[in-house]
Amino acid sequence: SFIMNMYLFVYDLTQFCGHSWIFTNMIIRFMTFGKDSLADTFHSIGLVMRLCQLLSVLEILHILIGIDKSHLLPRFLQITERIIVLFVVINSQEEVQGKYVVCVLFFLWNLLDVVRYTYNMLARMGIYYLPLTWLNFSLCIPLYPLSVLAKGFAICVSLPYFESFGTYSIQLPFPFTFSIYFPYVLKMYLLVLFAGMCFIIQNLFSERMAHLGTGNIKNKRS
């Protein structure tokens, strides 16, 4: 309906503004302060980044209620990956926040999202630019695996701090005789992360073929 389409347009516009601000801020800070800006990335833009990622949870709801026709599982995996790495790994360990990998991760996320939300906004209005369509469905194929590698590296960097501080590790009281050692949980999640990457990459190639096939390109040109 028109109302739902307008709602989705406003949602995409909000996300576009947030990610554009983050991306522009990162570029300006790097051009101004050089490498010194990398270690301060999280403290400078972390709040807006967290707000944008929390807002992205709505995309799962959009798919569930049927106003977004995207596939649920790939989108769910992509969103939860970011939520876990951002809030559980990076946000909880101040020592990790100053690592260069955080800057790399934020750069990749925002580059992908600026393109994606720009494409989505125009698509809501029935506007399709072939270069933008090609960029939206092609850029994610090399950049998504790079972002997964960055997520994995961020998790590996955080492990010594989770081991030292015991963050999220739980010793259950009697009569229970086991404990939850969070570094082991993160190591198991690494396997899930890379297994999910294979599934999502396959889905990205399928979406690219569906939108950039010869027939679809001709239809959008006409």
Overview of this protein structure:
With 222 residues, this protein is mostly helical. The protein has one domain. The protein contains nine helices and two strands, in the order H-H-H-H-H-H-H-E-E-H-H. It has helices spanning 2-33, 41-55, 58-65, 72-90, 94-97, 100-124, 130-165, 182-212, 214-221, and strands spanning 170-171, 179-180. The protein is globular, with a radius of gyration of 19 Å. The model has no long low-confidence stretch (mean pLDDT 91).
Throw out a few tags for this protein.
222 residues; mainly alpha; two-stranded antiparallel sheet; 80% helix; globular
Q: Helices, strands, pairings?
A:
Elements: H1 2-33, H2 41-55, H3 58-65, H4 72-90, H5 94-97, H6 100-124, H7 130-165, E1 170-171, E2 179-180, H8 182-212, H9 214-221
Antiparallel strand pairs: 1-2
Helix pairs in contact: 1-2, 1-6, 3-4, 4-7, 4-8, 6-7, 7-8
